[in-house]
Amino acid sequence: MEEYLSESPCPIQDWVNQASACVVHYTQGLLRIDAVAPDILRVRFSPSGRLAPPRAWSSPLDLPPAGLSVTEEDRLLRIATDALGVSLDLECGALVFSTPDGTPFAEDLGPPVWREVALDETNMEHMPEPELPEGDARTGVFLRKRMAPEEGYFGFGQRTGRLDRRHRRLTNWTIDRASPGHSRGDDNLYQAHPVFMAVRPGLAWGLYLNSTWYSAFDVGFKDPDVLTLFTLGGELDYFIFAGPTPAAVVEQLTRLTGRPMLPPLWALGYHQSRWSYGTDADVRGIARTFREHWIPLDAIHLDIDYMDDYRVFTWDGERFPAPGETIAALHADNVRAVTIVDPGVKYDLDSGYLTAASGIAGGHFIERLDGELFTGWVWAGESLFPDFCREETRSWWGEQHEDLIALGIDGIWCDMNEPSIVDRPFHSPGVCELPIPLSVQQGDEGEALHLETHNLYGLMMARATWEGLEQLRPERRPWVLTRSGFVGSQRWAASWMGDNNAWWEHLEMSLPQLASMGLCGSPHVGVDIGGFYQNSFGELYARWIELGTFYPFMRSHAHCDSQAQEPWAFGPEIEAIARAAIELRYRLLPYLYTLAHRAHRSGSPLLRPLFYDFPDAAQLYQIQDQMMIGPQLMIAPVCAPGVRRRLVELPPGHTWYDFRTGAAIDSDHLVVDAPLGEIPIFVRGGAILTLGNIRQSTAEALTELTLEVYPDHHHAGRWTLIEDAGDGFDYRDGAICATEMRIAPESAGTELSLSARVGGYTPAARRLVIRLHLARSPVAVLLDGRKVGDWHWDGEHHALVLGFKDDGQAHAIVPQF
Q1: Is the pLDDT of residue 180 over 70?
Q2: Mean pLDDT throughout 157-168?
């Protein structure tokens, strides 16, 4: 998208200071800068001089405005909060942002410019209309910014390709990348996240292009040092996040757009899925086989074949004659049930299908401009599509889940919600995508074009589902999985990355893809382990399941034409590897659940790139085959066939340990053995890693809590374990258990201190095991100042081992040499 032959607003005529905002009038156009918070500025420019009214579904939250100082000197307007500055050149109209110490960033190369844009200039495909709707919809606004040479550009949501998105052109328009699955050449996918962070040593800053219209970024594609923002809709609206660290940028983003939901504990367990476990016998048989093989499992997903002729919110009476009994049988085995629900509602008014009838009666479906219902084809045949931008429609949609909830369904899987629609029955000759017309009007008052709301369809469906489950079952946390989404989806749903392939390339791509989602505020993400399309095989599945242990959302899923892809499908050797990987997942749950709480409080991603925790180490920016899991663990998976060892870079400034041997590593890099089934895992010095006992389900009790403690040579370490009931909302009222732990550095005696539990939740009785990793065995151990004799030295793993009843009180463990 080029900005040639565009109009410019200059010169500037006057400006007005409005306490927390500065309004600037151009000869043509209006600029408004709002101090949303001391570390967040909002910049809006409208060529028409009219700023768009807020939408009811707008993702930014209302935050208390911050004070803003504005002064003019030598035709330069200086605008500042306590944490962020911006200067406006009154001659050329360019903005330059700066840190409190004056370091510039996000520098405009000129004012915003605009022109009329034609449909064929965009990347929107198969549009049913020959041109964009008239009015502001055709006005494209452009802004060019300087890219510092040392900056990496990260985030941008669900993408293929490398972690650093520099030198790419990226559009934002949700679409179903159907068979044979997405690939490196694809641009936009199922979700749209027009947000990124730029990172250089000493500074990370972020930008959120607050546009739900079709938009795009040129990240140094045309000009290697120029970032170009573009959006349709006739207004440029973006937020600048001051950082100055990646963690601060994510916190600022999620403070603005909403913190990630806190999933129930079971959702962090292992999920098994296939298109389709299509009968009661199939579903019960899968659950029974997991239990017989002693492979942990927390959820089975039911794909579209459970429905009656693919009518959403129904059951096939032959395949599932008694669905309540099916769900009860799963629950008896401590397995949760998740059902898929698509947005398309079969256009069936003759069979007594209540969802279609009540939806039409309530005016809940999208209509064409002539008032006729918009229809398209999905699995159910000709179907209707709810307008989730209407509040009443969202409430109605939530109510449709009542029967599923009454049967005991535990979670809802929202699919096909880009939305994915075709122009005739699936598998018909010549079948083609059929997007909703861009000129269709949506919202409570028909106030918005589909061109403005399209990217929100998946988010609003997920929101309607979450809010419906909350109303129907207020004592439990809703759990929603969505394929499509937008910035802010994290408030209501987890997501997976859509229809991947059983390719080594897609295994490798999952790391930068999931890390990018976390940087955009969506921490609860995963990909289909083993690959959705085509046939997985032993070595690929083994490498995928051992990496999947660390996905925030861990699910195996496969296409109906693929061969079996359950853990036992590849023979005894691979089954043993899968069992060990899933068992490790369950051992890690106390750590992962604490990370989920931290994400819920500050947005911090569970899986993140190395630079998130080490932003000043520029040599780590391009590493995308090693990831941090929270601040304490680093993984270095193998993503290629036949590889049994690999190079690992160790971030600077800390001692690092080998997780499997417990030995400290005296190097900043190493070549590590990586036999099949043993993903290289490393622990940061100062870590206190909380592990549980192996369980077949999270419904089983945590009977033993192990603290794997790794002292740093020079730095103290601190960790707070966060626990609650694992479901419900009592945690909001203080029903949590927080246990703070501290480990002194080796240079200061390596004392481990446990504080007394704090909070209104008390865990079940359990044993506490301390494993303190040391270079050599101590001669004695003090527990609360007294020598104890019931400890031993684990020479194989270089660990002092001491166990006692976990009484929730303060304790101190000191090794003596």
Answers
A1: no
A2: 96
Q: In this predicted structure, what is the pLDDT of residue 181?
A: 65
SS3 letters across 644-683 = CEEEEECCCCCCEEECCCCCEECCCEEEEECCCCCCCEEE
- On whether the CB atoms of residues 452 and 212 are closer than 8 A, the answer is yes
By annotation, the residues acting in catalysis are: 415, 418, 499
The 10 Å Cβ neighbour count of residue 74 is 5
| Separation of alpha carbons 477 and 480, rounded Å | 10
Q: Is the pTM of this model over 0.85?
A: yes
Bond from prior residue into 815 cis (ω within 30 degrees of 0): no
Q: Tell me if 227 sits within 8 A of 107, measured CB to CB.
A: no
Quote the CA–CA distance of 42 and 65 in Å, as a whole number: 11
Nearest-CA neighbor of 817 among 801, 800, 805?
A: 800
Cβ-count burial of 786 within 10 angstroms (0-12 exposed, 13-18 middle, 19+ buried)?
exposed
CB 660 within 8 A of CB 617: no
- pLDDT mean over 777-794: 97
The pLDDT of 373-397, averaged and rounded, is 98
How many residues are listed for the chain in this entry?
817
Separation of alpha carbons 35 and 41, rounded Å: 5
For residue 539, the number of C-alpha atoms closer than 13 Å in the C-beta half-sphere is 11
Measured between alpha carbons, how far apart are the two ends of the chain, in Å? 68
Q: What would the DSSP string read from start to end of 444-488?
A: TTS-EEHHHHGGGHHHHHHHHHHHHHHHH-TTS---EEESSEETT
CA 402, chain centre distance (Å):
27
pLDDT of residue 591: 98
Residue 660: pLDDT band (50, 70, 90) is very high
Q: Cβ atoms within 10 A of the Cβ of 13, count?
A: 11
**SS3 call for 553:** coil
Candidates 699, 726, 701, 695; CA nearest to 296 is 695
Does pLDDT of 126 surpass 90? no
